[in-house]
Amino acid sequence: MKSPSKLLTAQILPALILNLLSGVLITVSYLLQALLFTQLIIGLNASTSNTLMTLIVMLTGNALLRAVLMGFRAMQTEQLAANVRTRLRLQLFRPLLTPGFDIMQHHSAAKLQATLVEGVEVMEGFYSRYLPALLLALLSGAVTVITLASFDLLSGAILLLFLVTCPVMDHLFMRQQRRHIVGVFAAMQHFAEDLMDALRGMLTLKACNAVPRFRAKIADHAASLRRESMTTLRVTMMRGGITRFVSLFGTSGLLIINAWRTMQGTVDPALLLMTLFITWEAFRPILQLETVFHTLWAAQEMRPAMQELAASTATLHDPDFPHPMPAGNTLHLEAITYRWPGQHQPLFNNLTLTIAENRHTAFIGPSGSGKSTLFQLITRFIAPQSGAIFLGDEPISELSIAAFRRRISWVSQQVFLIDGTLAENLRLGRPDVTEAEIWQALQQAQLAEWVQSLPQRLNTLVGENGGLLSGGQRQRLAIARALLKQSPILILDEITSNLDVVNEAAIQRVISSLSGHCTLISIAHRLNTIAQADHIVVLQDGDIIEQGSPARLRFENGYYASLLQSQETIL
Ligand SMILES: Nc1ncnc2c1ncn2[C@@H]1O[C@H](COP(=O)(O)OP(=O)(O)OP(=O)(O)O)[C@@H](O)[C@H]1O
């Protein structure tokens, strides 16, 4: 398989060649201008006015043509940049968007954001500005040296010597300085990560009185970023200075040599003029390259994170030939073994369990007993190391991941809401739902009366992640959204644990109304929400230690009975 950067280079190669070609034509136009100027100045006294006029017309035409070429190249560079951006984003987002890919297992949110936003910007600069500028500097330099050498071999050789001195001096300087400038990107990342953490957790930081400590930490990172940036700026400016010095020294050195040779009468005065006009042209692309050199450093720093992300693959894959979706909605786990990466012992060892269709199955158990892991297995975010999970009579590993997930709706304790209106949030799972269906779902979720009372009704904005709603409203909105998806299996993951008694009672009514209409699977720490469940499964350290109807378990003297008793005592 080709590496992402090779793939990208191959994809943009035609545009890159066109960009380079227009750059070389601009150089050729400058060289032609130098020749025409030389002819014009030499011929000022000797040539006829017709010849002079022809030269002036040619000079003007050449300048106009160059202006068109420059305009075209500027436009084409922008197109190349847009092309690079689009292709890079496609490469980076493709693994993220596959159903079997769990990105958060691999990347922190801040690093991911830096890679996707700054990384793409940096690579765009590298491919659309630095790479063409580097190739152009090489090609233009060669064309200019060859042109001058065709008039005078010695002048061509001296120019080549100065041109080669530029990268050699640069390399020697950077060997000394490189270690001073590697810290800027790491400093930028630390600063961004801390800032993002602080913004996300501002309320918690305030509540814990931790703002001054966090502010000091961010200030430290900001100071280190400023130090690193200043060092990088100093090195960059010194680099620029060295390149400029070599180019000026080269231009004036060659001029002095050829002026001396002209005075000695060993070369034609026209060569002196040619040297004057052409030599600077050889250094022009090198000086242009200098202005975009920082993108090379940035790209070198960013490349590992981008390659890691682009090369990430889904942890779960669709089967090559997915089986048709089965009719039934019973879930059966057969001899499941699952061990989390990095853990020595499997959490589940030979776990067998049936979740009956159109029944309410509730999971309880102490913290860390494996309830959430079990849900991740059922929803195919992770896969067991051995054993199989069946939907009806089909192993879910033989079904298309997307088709299987359409069968399931999931409401979790941490509801995710987009920063839009109530209607936009409700339509997330099925954009084509009618308004009548929305109101019906709101009715079922015990939310219709509240939405009716709002001035903007369904067009009410919910704020960033539902910040303008109460916890109970957010939770019921998520239930209404799940109901609109009309999936036959509904998973409720500790949805009442943060709610007050009134909201919990409202959600209990919602759950009761769903009973018998879908396969309902819930996790709960408080027993009120699952009192009406058809079947209760008690997990402990990954094992099922009890299961049965609530009526039976309450007399079994086990975990459920003791939990029931302790919660009744508290009430
Ligand atoms: N992503 C993960 N990587 C490694 N280990 C994990 C991961 N998620 C959970 N575990 C481990 O698996 C075990 C079961 O965790 P799980 O979250 O499934 O329990 P739980 O019963 O849902 O707990 P709680 O009621 O506190 O939410 C724990 O020991 C936990 O440390």
UniProtKB/TrEMBL annotation:
Membrane-spanning residues where?
A: 12-32, 52-69, 130-148, 154-173, 242-260
Under Gene Ontology molecular function, one entry of this record is: ATP binding
Record keywords? ATP-binding, Membrane, Nucleotide-binding, Transmembrane, Transmembrane helix
Cell location: Cell membrane
| One Pfam family from the record | ABC_tran
Give residue ranges for domain ABC transporter.
Answer: 331-566
What is its membrane topology? Multi-pass membrane protein
- InterPro entries, A to Z: AAA+_ATPase, ABC1_TM_dom, ABC1_TM_sf, ABC_transporter-like_ATP-bd, ABC_transporter-like_CS, P-loop_NTPase, Type_1_exporter
Keyword Transmembrane in record: yes
As recorded in UniProt, its EC number(s) are 7.6.2.2
Q: Where is the ABC transmembrane type-1 domain?
A: 15-296
What Gene3D superfamilies does this protein's entry cite?
ABC transporter type 1, transmembrane domain, P-loop containing nucleotide triphosphate hydrolases
Q: Which family does it belong to?
A: Belongs to the ABC transporter superfamily. Drug exporter-2 (TC 3.A.1.117) family.
Q: What is this protein called?
A: ABC-type xenobiotic transporter
Which organism is this protein's natural source? Candidatus Pantoea communis
